[in-house]
Amino acid sequence: MKSNTLLDYAVFELSPNLKRCDLFVSSNGNTEKLVSGSVKPFISHLKFAEEQASQAVQSIKLEFDRHRNAETWFTKGTLERFVRFVSTPEVLEMVNTFDAEMSQLEAAQNIYSQVMTAILSSIEHL
Prior knowledge:
This is COP1-INTERACTING PROTEIN-RELATED. This protein has 4 helices and 4 strands; from the N terminus they run βββααβαα. By secondary structure, it is of the alpha+beta class. The chain folds into 2 domains: about 1-85, no CATH class; about 90-125. A 4-stranded antiparallel beta sheet has the order 3-2-1-4. β2 and β3 (about 30-40) form a beta hairpin.
């Protein structure tokens, strides 16, 4: 399949643990694997994919809206460029930093919740 081939759809096939994926592209009944790798960089750039992955689905399908002239840009080459972009070290580092910050925020929220529960509990006993 050539880079300028218009796609019917692309699909991320997720591993059972939802950590890795295979990205397939399809056009006119022909399907080929574009890339395999970590799912994290992809879902961090595709909000709807992140939502679907959080629902533990096994595949995420990308299709274009025919009413918005997407057929002019939804090509194998566009997805190849997207894969290169999300696979660059800077983007991967940004995703890892974002994950670390989210973990810290979740831990802080957990601690805050525990402290507030303890304070409210001690106030009730007064």
